[in-house]
Amino acid sequence: MKPPDTLASKGRAVEEWTDFHFFRPVGRRIAGAASATRISADQVTMASLLVGLVAGHLFVYQSVGRNAVGLMLFIISDLLDSADGQLARLRGTSTRFGRVLDGFSDGARFLNLYIHLAVRLVLAGGSWPAAVLALAALFSHQHQSSAVDFIKNAFLRFHDRDHDALDLPEHTGREADENLFIRTGRGIYRDYLERQVRMFPQSVRLARRIGTGDLPAGLRVRYAEMQEPVVARCAWIGQNIRFAMLALTAVAGWPSAFLWLTLGPLNLVLIGLVATHERNARRLLAAMPRPVRVLARAERTYRGAIIGLGGIARQAHLPAFIADRRLEDRFAIVATVDAGEGVSPFDGIPLLRSMDTLREMGPIDFVDICTPTATHLPLTLQALAAGYHVVCEKPVALTRSEATQVARAAHRANRIVMPCHQHRFNPVWRQIARWLEDDALGRWHLAELSVYRAEADRGASNAETPWRGLWDHARGGVLLDHGTHFLYNLMDLAGPPAGVRAWTGQLRHQAFDVEDTAQLILEYPGRIATVFLSWAGHQRENRIRIIGERGVIEWRGAALTCEANGVVESVDCSMQSNKASYTGWFGDLFADFAGTLDCRDGDEYLADIARVAAVLEAAYASAASGGRAHTVRVTV
After folding, report:
1. Is the pLDDT of residue 18 over 80?
2. CA–CA dist 521, 487 (Å, integer)
3. Is 338 exposed, middle or buried, given 0-12, 13-18 or 19+ CB atoms closer than 10 A?
4. Is 134 exposed, middle or buried (0-12, 13-18, 19+ CB in 10 A)?
5. In what order do the strands lie in the sheet with 366-369?
6. Is residue 293 part of a domain?
7. Residue 610 — pLDDT band, cuts 50, 70, 90?
8. What does the pLDDT read at residue 8?
9. Where a domain ends, among 421, 438, 458?
10. How far apart are CA 171 and CA 187, in angstroms?
């Protein structure tokens, strides 16, 4: 059983001062007294409703005394409304029907009030405009109270990890033995939840995204930083402010002023709260790790073509599609496309010279773009225009404008675009994410990431200068090639940075017309991440170090270790430094793609593309300005 103080309050963050110091404590005393009797929580709810109905009726009279009694009865009704939930929790008898009944009671009490205020104004000579004013105020009140309820319950769900706090329409399933009264109440409650879904679509996406799980520890902290001010401002359109408004307007003889305040200033507060809440939800969605879809053995096999037969296609993409047993009934690669001279077919798969000729191969569901970076955007847009889903090597877009083009084209074609962020499936990063999600380090404040190579990857080319070193093909150097991987992995852990400082230059490869070395400082509130990337190194090497308040996670060479509170955990990751391991990561990535094609929800991919593009754009702008800090603005 929960201690009494826990039962008395949902938590300081979601309680107004009067709730925390008056309504909850008095409600707890009422619940404590009722717990020794046969009075049920639902009966207390009904008592709250009846008292509230009488309170509303008393406002039909133009009498200060009767109005004052009505206000007092409203306060008593609210005390009973506080007590019913505490009594249910005290007895361990909380039910969804109790929540439905409680919501119905709240709505009915204020519906009754607005009806009586309208009648009062009409009787005073207000005629039909008074009724319209009352109806508009009632409509506004419904949305204001729905918003307050959603914002507070969302905070309890996302930050406090109270899995029962936030209801969605799909949670209101019908029971077999329901009577007419319960079915009616459930229907009203479902309509109420549907209203909240319409008001908070991004927040609902976030709730459905995490399902029965929780936000990672780092994102919970970030959520609290963003949302606590929003929750606090709910007091301006909450229930207690209405009691004060009633006292200052209706009791004082100006009932129309109560309606105008509800319709005007309180709606302005509502618009601000919803906009801020939705903006914060979008930021969290952008910061959330991509969900790994469940790969089912479905009747549908997706037919695809590989665009570009360079090293990454031959060494990773095609082997994963062909050799991964999980994918054998999900994908069929029916063609490859490459216009280069001397390119040979792969494993007997037909080789075409142009993507325009793909229609000759029959129905095509998707294309997998494995070409140099400069072609990613035009080929993606061409594929979407042809009606194909797209898998594309990273980075898909280099600027926010390009990311927006991709998103608009994907939505217009109703097709999915997936970036090849295969390092997300690297066991090293998965283990790091698990340690951080388990709060092994506490709050981390410094991440240091670096990669060293002796030169740019040549792929399958024998050219003197690899294409990755040429602007016309690559559009950037080591920052795009290796940096993209670090960026999306880091943003999976911490979300997009607030700002970035960067330096890029050539230290060794003077034949390149792109950078061979880059240094980034990614700035977050209370933490930073440094990223160093170079094709001017002595040998192939990766380093990761993340420092938190309780310890450090390090990866260098074979050993991945987590030292926390003096205890060291070590994992052998020697194979993950070898490119031969890429095939397995791509197998995981393509399995994720198959699951996404099944459910046809690729918005997270577009958010992934957008936030990487935003950081890349800001980093190159910073480097061009001599390392001056540039703000990262993610457009999702």
Report:
1. no
2. 11
3. buried
4. buried
5. 351-352, 331-337, 302-307, 366-369, 389-393, 417-420
6. no
7. very high
8. 44
9. 421
10. 12
Map residue 76 onto helix, strand or coil: helix
Structure tokens at 549: 């308040």
Task: Please classify residue 359 by burial: count the beta carbons closer than 10 Å to its beta carbon, then call 0-12 exposed, 13-18 middle and 19+ buried.
Answer: exposed
CA 293-298-304 angle, 5° bins: 80
* Residues 125 and 46 sit within 8 Å (Cβ to Cβ): no
Q: What is the pLDDT of residue 39?
A: 85
Q: Are 417 and 396 in contact (CB under 8 A)?
A: yes
Between the two ends of the chain, the Cα-to-Cα distance in Å is 44
Classify strands 551-556 and 541-548 as parallel, antiparallel or unpaired.
antiparallel
pLDDT tens digit sequence for 390-405: 999 999 999 999 999 9
109/11 same-domain check:
yes
Domain limit, last residue, from 421, 447, 468: 421
String of DSSP letters for 276-334: HHHHHHHHHHHHSPPPPPP----S--EEEEEE--SHHIIIIIHHHHHH-GGGTTTEEEE
Which token pair is 220?
């919970």
- Together in a domain, 431 and 416: no
Q: DSSP labels for 16-46? A: -HHIIIIIHHHHHHHHHHHHTSS--HHHHHH
How far is the C-alpha of 563 from the C-alpha of 468, rounded, in Å?
A: 38
pLDDT in tens, 513-551: 999 999 999 998 889 999 999 999 998 889 999 999 999
Helices (H), 427-576: 427-437, 471-474, 478-481, 483-494
Strand 527-534 versus strand 444-452 pairing type = parallel
Give the model confidence (pLDDT) of 63-83 as tens digits: 889 989 988 998 888 888 778
Q: Is the pLDDT of residue 373 over 90?
A: yes
Residue 313 and residue 272 share a domain: no
State which H helix or E strand residue 564 sits in.
Answer: strand 559-564
Cβ(532)–Cβ(450) below 8 Å: yes
Q: For residue 334, what is the domain's CATH number?
A: 3.40.50.720
The confidence score (pLDDT) of residue 34 equals: 81
Between 85 and 268, residue with greater pLDDT: 268
Instruction: Characterize 53-62 residue by residue with b for buried, 16 or more Cβ atoms within 10 angstroms of its Cβ, and e for exposed.
Output: bbbbbbbbee
**Mean confidence (pLDDT) of the chain:** 86
For the entire predicted model, the pTM comes to 0.63
Where in the sequence is the domain holding 197, given as residue range(s)?
4-287
Total domains in the fold of the chain: 3
3-class secondary structure, 459: coil
Residue 292, in any domain of the structure: no
| CA 209, 215, 219, 222 torsion-angle sign | positive
| 583 in any annotated domain | no
Q: Would you say residue 6 has pLDDT above 50?
A: no
What CATH number should be reported for the domain holding residue 242?
Answer: 1.20.120.1760
